[in-house]
Design goal:
Structural class: alpha/beta
Bound molecules: N-(iminomethyl)-L-glutamic acid, fe (iii) ion
Number of domains: 2
Helix content: 25-40%
Radius of gyration: 21 Å
Number of strands: 16
Distance between the termini: 28 Å
Strand content: 15-25%
CATH architecture of the largest domain: Alpha-Beta Barrel
Oligomer: single chain
CATH topology of the largest domain: TIM Barrel
């Protein structure tokens, strides 16, 4: 019996875009992309063992009796996509918010009149864990089909200890059974819930009663907060996040969506990422750069709210590591199509193909502190997606209409 019988050679691919060896931050030109023509990948135990010219690998495979998974169409292979910011664990729809918004009401006006996030809180609280699991699972199915192999998911529609635990439990259950890898984040500080009149008291309650349980039960390693006039102030956020960090959580923040306090907080607490950043200017870019915070832009929220995009070009030129995520949520970003959104912000902001693809693969991995995925090299997780094309540029050129034909999660076709 051969020791390599559980090795599989997959290929040939017309092009393999490895997304390896790219700068961690700042601009990237398309010339910097490593494109393997007529390439193949050897996978085993969910990881990439070898990657290179198909003909060379085929010889090895025949000698060592690897399994062969033949690709007969011209295809481009890239790493599985990483959506580093979503709120896809929720019940209900906010189509009524949408109708109000396009009739001229602002996001903040809708929130103040009882719609908005708190509407999703009501509906999510009414849902059972089983119902939430079912809804989340369906959204994961869709994401996986569209090439997303790792996806961050936030709580934040519970806003009590019990309801936040319910959401995180639902995320954990889906993660256990679904091929898509979920990265949970506790967003109990999404908004002050109606039962509380004092934000400081609510945040302290979360720190005392919820976060220790989240840690103990291994429900999340990350904590998020929404820093904005209608949510939490700079000072409240700073105190909360400092305490959460002391409890051992990684920090990410909803920052600079409408006003600019958030990135200052992100820089000060040493957040892994600051997300949104539509309102960020030169000063905020410098702060994030100096603190080594990943800038995650969310074109889906700009599209949903009819707002301008975050200044991604300026951010890259200012030396930031820019990730792109969907922010898929029932309110501001119901679409959830990562490739389409990346292509649209790329076209509007004049991002190179390399910068845009890095923002949904290797740089999105950085936004989640993941070092084992996001590029295709020896030893990384064999999360890979293949498109029927002979030119990787077509993936963004078709603005989301070209869907992956094959998705592999840890080397297994799904
Ligand atoms: O990232 N800005 C705050 N939170 C979400 C919106 C969530 C919702 O509207 O339900 C966001 O856009
Ligand atoms: Fe968000």
């Amino acid at each position: 019996m051969n020791q390599h019988e559980n090795y599989t050679l997959i290929g040939p691919f017309t092009q393999i875009l490895t997304m390896a060896n790219l700068p961690e931050a700042g601009p990237i030109t398309d010339d910097e992309l490593e494109v393997l023509e007529d390439g193949g990948v050897v996978v085993s135990d969910g990881k990439i063992k070898l990657i290179g010219k198909y003909n060379v690998l085929l010889k090895v495979a025949q000698e060592e009796h690897y399994r062969l998974e033949k690709i007969s169409e011209p295809m481009v292979l890239i790493p599985g996509l990483i959506d580093s910011h979503t709120h896809i664990c929720f019940a209900g729809s906010r189509a009524n918010d949408y109708a109000m918004r396009v009739a001229g009401k602002s996001y903040l006006e809708i929130a103040r009149s009882g719609g908005g996030i708190l509407d999703s809180v009501r509906k999510t609280r009414e849902a059972t864990v089983v119902e939430l699991v079912d809804l989340l699972k369906k959204r994961c199915d869709r994401h996986l089909n569209e090439g997303v192999t790792t996806c961050e998911v936030k709580s934040g529609y519970g806003l009590t200890v019990e309801e936040e635990l319910k959401m995180l439990e639902a995320i954990k259950l889906v993660n256990k059974h679904h091929e898509l890898d979920l990265v949970p984040t506790c967003l109990a500080a999404h908004m002050r819930p109606p039962e509380h009149t004092d934000s400081k008291v609510y945040l302290q309650h979360i720190l005392d009663e919820l976060l220790p349980q989240v840690k103990e039960q291994g429900l999340a390693d990350r904590v998020d907060i929404f820093i904005e006039d209608t949510a939490f102030t700079e000072l409240e956020s700073l105190e909360y996040l400092t305490a959460a960090k002391e409890l051992g959580f990684d920090i990410t923040v909803h920052a600079d969506q409408f006003s600019t306090d958030g990135s200052r907080v992100a820089a000060e607490v040493g957040a892994v990422s600051a997300d949104h950043l539509e309102a960020s200017g030169d000063e905020e870019i410098v702060l994030l750069k100096e603190a080594g915070v990943v800038a995650t832009v969310l074109p889906g929220a700009s599209l949903g709210l009819g707002m301008h995009y975050a200044p991604a070009r300026k951010m890259l030129d200012g030396g930031l590591c820019v990730a792109i995520a969907t922010d898929w949520n029932p309110g501001s970003a119901p679409m959830g199509d990562l490739i389409m959104q990346a292509a649209l912000i790329g076209a509007a902001e004049k991002l190179t193909i390399a910068e845009t693809l890095a923002a949904i693969t290797t740089r999105a991995a950085k936004a989640l502190n993941l070092t084992d995925r996001g590029c295709l090299t020896k030893g990384t997780q064999a999360d890979m997606i293949a498109f029927e094309s002979s030119n990787y540029k077509e993936i963004l050129y078709f603005q989301g209409k070209l869907k992956p034909t094959i998705v592999w999660k840890q080397g297994r076709r799904v």
